[in-house]
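Have a close read of the entry that follows and walk me through the local backbone shapes. See right below:
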Amino acid sequence: MNPRDARLAWCLFGCLCALYLLTAGGHFYSSDGHQKFAVLATVLEEGTTAIDGGWIQGRFGLRYAWFPLGASLVMLPGYLVGRALAPWLPGVAPHDVERVVVALQNAGVTAALAVAMFQALRWMGHSARASLAAALAFGLGTAAWPYAKTCWSEPAATLALFLGLVGLWRLVQAEERPQGSPLRAWGVGSCLALALLIRQEFLVPVIGAAAWLGWLNRRGHRPSNATLVGLGVPLALGLGLHLAYEHVRWGAWLSFPNYRLPREGTGAALEAWRILEGVFRHSISPNQGLLFFSPAALLGLAGLRAWGRRCRPLVGLLGAALVPLFAFYVVGWGPSSWAWGMRYSYVFLPFLMLPAAELFERPLGAWARLCLGAGLVVQLVAVPYDFVYLYQRELAQHPGTRIMAIMSEPLRSPLLLALRALPDLGRGAPPVWLPPPSSSPDANALRRARAELVPDFWWCLFRRTLVPPHLLNGLALTIAAFGLACLMELRRTSRLASGS
């Protein structure tokens, strides 16, 4: 990376990270997060993965969360930072501090994913201006922004998969120029291993990537033994750790209850109508479709043909990895409830936005500007809310209604629910998602704040806690000033890059 690109990358990260931090809620948005956090805390503090209140009974009558181990381990950076900050907040229970930091963690992860997109596009030969525009379109015009305020595992898993697949493409390029590095291969293999540890179905794109490597081998582009070892050892260790964790919990190597149990409620039949329903749900459904909740992705689809000619080997790799994953979600996975659109479609967003750089190489047409504007508006509508609140509000107003009905009726799309709730912003609202019971008086105050204050931003919600208001104001203003400085430097550096 040349110095100017490095400056652009850092400014892009700072600008997006500041924006995501300012619009983050600072709390968990689902019971999934509490289960994952409980596993991490129990592993570090008690040396066991069994937790009180685990959703499933496993071996020896112990209770366990059904999520993969990586979904908990990915919270480790936030946990450690929160543990270091806890002594400075003596009136707050340590786990409450750790949850807040973990809940803010995806702001940095999502900003890093946009930076990874920028660098990948530069490697593909796109101009700095087009690469930066495509990364910003991803960061501001897709569901990446609303999900940056959550602690769900999709952003971290997607970042690991993106780095792994793009790194594999670069690795093959280096092998052809004989500049391959075994250390780089280890890095690529580690990213792919982390991805499947966080989301176990990401084994599907890993197998697809391996098939792509096998296809290259048949065409005479055989990777070196050092490269194969560097790729294979981390993947084998990651897969072995996952299978061992499954055996410890359930006494079976291949149990996968977080896939099997939800699917039992949706039926196992693979009729054609069910497959078509899955395609509709992921793509153009008003309730969960990717194009409704991430309109900027249309730019990626529009630039796909030209981009395919530019990056044909990478297109082959991404097709082999992601098309089977999409088929898995369509056939074997149901809708994602309590979310902003289809949460499982998140993984496809950065890859879909890569071809958008082709459109940014020239002035945008009116329809492209409309897509960008629509994407930004949709995310601006999303970020003031706790998504769970939108569904709970609708359920409270219509007693007897089930969540699955809300997720399938177009007039109850989360986007429409958010628009209807706009007049309530600032007036106080019914309770949103509450944290688990805690003896901390600050946690009780936090419950009341979440029940009364919207928008769902930490610097609003924490104003009714023991945290001094001037500290909240200072933190928010400091983050805003930092983000503004990064934005100004981003504009200046991008203009210099365009003029050179």
